[in-house]
Amino acid sequence: MAAVVRRPTVPVSVTTPSLTEARTCPADQRRRRPDHPHRGTGVPDRRRASGATRRAGPDSLDQPGGHGGAGLPLASEAAEPEVMRRPPRSSGEPLLTRFAVVRTLYVGVLMSATAVVLFLLTAPLGHTDPEATAQAQTLAVTSVAFFQIFYVLTCRTFVVPVRSIGWLSNPSIFTGIGVLLILHAGFVHLPAAHAVFGTAHLTPAQWALAAAAGALVVPVVAAEKHRRRLG
Question: Which of 180, 190, 192, 215 is the most exposed place for a label (fewest CB within 10 A)?
Fold first, then answer.
């Protein structure tokens, strides 16, 4: 009888890379389809960098004060010429900086004072005519609306004059202003608004007076920007 010889079985194991090996594996070998040829190589994506510098980002939006609905297009505002040369903000800088508090206070006081003075000039104390009082109130509210329009135009830049980025560099801001003016015109002249809000019609001269009163914020903020540029 022949002896049966059994060969020892050798276990077969399938080795897979460990987690440590996967971490040390070059990133380019693990990537299947890179969405950009320079990603992971240290070469910046110029398309993304150029797109980031075309927008002002926080510069315009961080400016305090009452923007109203017209301030929403500031998110797509063009960047200022020297924006990339400014130092980054400190990590310990508070949300309400001294600049934000001072700007909010003097803009709010100026806007309120303009509306109150305009109301007192058109409807002096002791006036008993309800129609004249409603018209004076409407004029004061309209001056506030124009104040916000002119203020948001000055907030398009943080330090430099608005002309440095181009008056028409952000057409959406004028679209927002146009929508605001149309809604406010309905607020002033529609009979339904008269019944609900107690407003009254304004003459073209009164519209011009409200616009002139609202424009008072332009030289004030321009003087502040000039002082910030100097020091």
Answer: 192
Across 33-37, 68-72, 77-81, 108-112, which has the greatest mean pLDDT? 108-112
For 119, other C-beta atoms within 10 Å of its C-beta total 18
Q: Which two tokens stand for residue 84?
A: 């990339």
User: Residue 49: enclosing H or E segment and its boundaries?
Assistant: helix 46-53
Closest CA to 27 of 16, 14, 38: 38
Q: Which of 199, 181, 209 is nearest to 118 (CA)?
A: 209
- Interacting residues of 115 by C-beta distance below 8 A, sequence separation 6+: 140, 141, 143, 144, 147, 213
Under 8 Å between Cβ of 136 and 122: yes
Full-prediction pTM beyond 0.85?
no
**Digit-coded pLDDT (tens) for 132-158:** 899 999 999 999 999 999 999 888 888
Phi/psi for 16 (5° steps) reads -120, 150
Which tokens is 28 given?
Answer: 């380019």
| C-alpha span between 230 and 227 (Å, rounded) | 5
Q: How many residues does the chain have?
A: 231
Q: What distance in Å separates the CA atoms of residue 157 and residue 28, rounded to the nearest whole number? A: 42
**What 3-state class would DSSP assign to 69?**
helix
Closest CA to 85 of 59, 47, 46: 59
